[in-house]
Amino acid sequence: MLSRVADTLWWMSRFVERAEGVTRIVQVHRDSDLETEFSQGAAEYWNSALIALYAQNEFEVGKFKDPGSFIIFSPQWIGSVINCVNAARENARMVRDQLSEEIWVELNNLYHFLNSEDAHSNFATEESKFYARIIRFSLIFQGLSDATIHQDEGWRFMTLGKYLERADLTSRVLDTLTLLGSEPTRLDLIRALRSCSAFSAFKKKYRGALTLSNVADLLLFSEDFPRSLRFSLRCIDSQLHEISAVPSGSFTNEAERLSGRALAHMNFSDINSMISQGLHESIDEIQKLLIAVGQSIFETYVLLPSEINSTTPLQKLQSQMQQQ
Amino acid sequence: MAQNLHTVDAVAINRFKDYSNTGFFDEMFGTGFVAQDHYQQINSRLSQIGDSELETKQQQVASSFLEHGVTFTVYGETEGTERIFPFDLIPRIIPSDEWHEIEQGLVQRIIALNLFLNDIYKDSKIIKDGVIPREVVESSPHYRAEMVGFNVPKDIYIHICGSDLIRDEKGRYLVLEDNARCPSGVSYLLENREIMKKAFPRTYREMSVCPVEAYPDLLLKTLEYLSPRNSGKPVCVLLTPGVYNSAYFEHTYLARQMGIEIVEGKDLITIEDFLFMRTTHGLVQVDVIYRRLDDNFLDPSFFKNDSLLGVSGLMNCYLKGNVSLANGIGTGVADDKVTYAYVPEMIRYYLAQEPILEQVPTYLCWREDDRKFVLENLQDLVIKPANESGGYGMLIGSSSSRKEREEFSDRIKKSPRDYIAQPIVSLSRHPTFCDGSIEGRHVDLRPFVLYGDDIEIVPGGLTRVALQKDSLVVNSSQGGGSKDTWVLKG
Amino acid sequence: MRLYVLHKTHYSYPSPVRNSCNELRLSPLSNDWQKCITCFVSVFPTTKTRQYLDLNGNLVHYFEIPEDHSHLTIESRSTTTTSKRVDFGNFPYGVPMRSLKEVESSPEARPYLQSSHFVDITPEIWRQAVEIQGDSKDVFQTAYQIMEFVYLNYEYCVSTTSVDTHVSEVLKKRKGVCQDFAHAVIALCRCLGIPARYVSGYFYDSSRDQIMRGGGASHAWVEVLVNGHGWFGLDPTNNRVVDETYVLIGSGRDYRDVAPVTGNYFGKLPDKMEVSVNVRRID
Q1: CB neighbours of C4 closer than 8 A, spacing ≥ 6?
Q2: Which domains does chain C have, with CATH numbers?
């Protein structure tokens, strides 16, 4: 398929996943507000969320007073939910011919809703429904992606984008716990789990043993929880091998080599060694790896070999891609 | 005052009791008071629907267009506003014999225009024989001297043509202009039909309307026919200026319907006069480009500009015969409004027969006698720039101010080649749903002609309607809307 | 029936030719059974075309290309409506062979009773004709038997004959294409005094698997004059009485009068000639 199309599908899928993940973070934090006085630490956990999302500076200089509505609606901050949805829709518009009518209609409807007056009034009056609408959209989007289009190369790039974004989000949520400044409380741990939609999964596996080590173990190393880093990396690795038709365990390009290395890192490490190394530092390292995987996918499948090292056309092309 | 004599029963609503068709040819009532035969069924259907139901249907249609992203982009106001193309629920109906005549006329016309282009870029016999002055051809801004002597694939320059037809006060069809570069609007034709089938399923079935759904297949067949490679399945792509182009929806729509890639200039690369697209599995050779880009944007190095939309080296691939373009390069001469005046002569010259479709009499301002006449009669004429599309830069004499006329008169004197004038034709009107009641609005018709192995026209075309009262301008960029066009089976 | 015909002819010459003058008989006739709605004839390299009606009433397009050129493409697109021509339950039987004497000298029949360029009247052919006639005393019956005889006993095969093959050769070899079949029937009919003319045109193959012979090309058949009933079409290639699926371009004494494309030029013979005919029913 066209390289640009693959790239666009990948970004579309990333933005949808990001909109869902970020919305869930806001939703969970707002729920926490009900049980926490602002003076008793609410400011702190919002702050750590903003840091983990790289949104702290924009929030401080912006007009929004409330971090929740800032994360949802800020036109300035590129990672706001509304910007993610707009970007996803813009990408989708470019590759409409690849999408099913159902996928397009869902995405287009959410886009029109978020950009209408209704969105703000709905957010003010029926906040929980508002979050549910965005999250449900993402889930429908994933279902439709699996059920209404060919599971061909384009779908694989969408899947790659989804899991790379998901791995990134999960690592950021976990990072909020290391950014609190004090030992995470029970409420903090629950908030992190719920932000990854992992609370029930956690209860099932660890019963009541709510410790940072157990939470991190689930979010990083679970083999079968679909938002854990290990699970996401396994999906990324297998999709990359499906695309190149090279058996898993070997590699023919940089993207496969890096994803294989990241997966091996998760397969052959454990929570204790990570905690002793420093959880924040370990997460940072994983995030760097994820960025490198993303970049190498771009270089492998979107750029021509001659463009990877020649600076001018590469930068031009790339900057156009990132603007989407 | 038209009176509806065809109400089906006592409770039926007479929707046309205040309807006026004086002074115009009305598609439904002609010049009389009774709905013409081919409009009877729609007429009776309309009289069965309540006001609110009609209103609801109209709103559903609008939201369905928005939901499906059937939109175009308007420039000038804020940065790229997405709009739906307003749609009117009352279909325009054309009886089969009337359509057959239009169809024949259009086929004749595209053959003549194509022969003309082949001629002027080769031996120029029509010029040498004194039928068309050389300066008319060579002064056209869309004339491409680079094409002289080049053999276009299969002798076809115009593969896709959208000719605009209007009807005068007697109901005669006249050709108003030919769009031989990148005519757009066909996606609305196809989407309108889908919407109408849902809105009026029973009436649609009862009236046995010719389907239009074959268009994308016919277009693909047309493109594949041009392939320079004889073996294998040709690789055809649609080249778009990008997501910010006003017709981007149409580009993705057609690409999806044909199952071909939609590409931007940056997806393409030329290597030793062959064209390739960049894919995730390396470069793939391209055979045919359906380009939705004007000539001079296609290749920045050939046309010496800094267009970011095109592909450097594309023209060399084309001139070497390694890739085909639809439409060809230089077709703009054929839809120049000065050339238009000579189309009847072309038909007589190349085909040895009379034109089937008439056209609007045209005064060419570069001819001294014509110019004198035009300048003296500005208030009774429409003045059009010879090479603008989208209804921009026109003067409608009867509704212009003295100042505007003086302005145009100066412009005409300064560059007479750039202007033509035509008598004001009062376009036919069609019943249209406007703010809760039905009123007459001016319409035109743009059929789409495909020229490949054979010449094909899907029955009907896009009926464009000027939604503002008394407006004669139907262009989407100027507040026009559209209707579905039903050609009845014969 | 509304029939659309697209007929393309393409010549490639091994080296450029010039001063090409051509006549085209590609435009369907309008007569009692068919009406030609439109016919567009286009020529590449582009040139001015003109037209006239020939002695047989056929419409002829003609043109010249003085310049050097190495390809010549001629395209004809026509739309014709045809109407029911014969009643298959009621053929014009009952006109006796002996009544043929009466038409012998009429101007309508005379040219079609004599020898022409490709068709001879010889004692040998006459003997064969008499044999096929057997004891038939009816004009239509006899003509029908001749058509059937040719259909059943001649082999249909492409490229064993050329456009210049004379009927005497066809009768000897008993093989050929529609043009040869038609010439054979004409010769046999004329020997018995049945006026017979050569018709060129197209037919629409409505059979399910398009199994009829001569589709995808220009076709030829025969018309015979049945005194008092007019001309009847017989298609010996397909053993059919001509009905509304046939479109007539023109008729004449033999192929020479109605050849679709004829002309002359300075230069070598074409090394490639491609002809395609596509007949489509449109309603």
Answers
A1: C77, C78, C79, C279, C280, C281, C282
A2: 2-83+259-281 (2.60.40.2250), 97-258 (3.10.620.30)
DSSP string, C69-127: EEEEEEEEEEEEEE-----TT---TT-BGGGHHHHTT-TTTGGGTS--SS----HHHHH
> Which chains have 3+ CB pairs within 8 A of C?
B
Which residues of chain C does B126 touch, with a Cβ-Cβ cutoff of 8 Å? 46, 48
Name the H helices within chain C.
100-103, 123-133, 139-153, 167-173, 178-191, 255-258
Q: Hey, what are C111's tokens?
A: 């040219």
Q: Is C in contact with A (3 or more beta carbon pairs below 8 Å)?
A: no
Judge: C47–B125 Cβ closer than 8 Å, yes or no. Answer: yes
pLDDT 10s digits, C95-144: 999 999 888 888 889 999 999 999 999 999 999 999 999 999 999 999 99
pLDDT tens, per residue, chain C with 283 residues = 999 999 999 999 999 999 999 999 999 999 989 999 999 999 999 999 999 999 888 999 999 999 999 999 999 999 999 998 888 888 889 899 999 988 888 888 999 999 999 999 999 999 999 999 999 999 999 999 999 999 999 999 988 888 889 999 999 999 999 999 999 999 999 999 999 999 999 999 887 777 788 777 889 999 999 988 999 999 999 999 999 999 999 999 999 999 999 999 999 999 899 999 999 998 7
Per-residue pLDDT reduced to its tens digit, A265-324: 999 999 999 999 999 999 999 999 999 999 999 988 888 766 765 544 433 333 333 332
% of chain B at pLDDT higher than 90: 67
- Using a CB–CB cut-off of 8 Å, the residues of B that contact C are 100, 104, 107-108, 111, 114-116, 118-119, 122-123, 125-126, 129, 155, 349-353, 356, 454-455, 489-490
User: Which residues in chain B are closer than 8 Å to C44, comparing Cβ atoms?
Assistant: 115, 118, 155
Torsion of CA A119, A124, A128, A129, to 10 degrees: -40
Q: How far apart are CA B428 and CA B442, in angstroms?
A: 6
Q: Do chains B and C touch (3 or more CB pairs under 8 A)?
A: yes
Chain C residues touching residue B349 (CB < 8 angstroms): 48
Residue appearing with tokens 């660890």: A206
Quick check: B280 contacting A, CB < 8 Å?
yes
Question: Which candidate in C40, C59, C61, C272 is best for mutational testing of the B interface (most B CBs within 10 A)?
Answer: C40
Nearest Cβ partner of A105 from B67, B248, B280?
B67
pLDDT digits (tens, 9 = 90+) for B375-406: 999 999 999 998 876 667 888 888 889 999 99
Subunits adjacent to chain A (3 or more Cβ pairs under 8 Å): B
Most C CBs within 10 Å, among B108, B151, B221, B454, to test the C interface = B454
Q: Which residues of chain A have pLDDT under 50?
A: 311-324
Could you tell me the domains of chain B?
361-423 (3.30.1490.270)
Show the tokens assigned to B31.
Answer: 């010049």
Structure tokens at A115: 């950009």
Q: Which residues of C61-93 are buried (b: 16+ CB within 10 A; e: fewer)?
A: bebebeeebebbbbbbbbbbbbeebbeeeebbe
Nearest to A2 among B67, B249, B263 (CB): B263
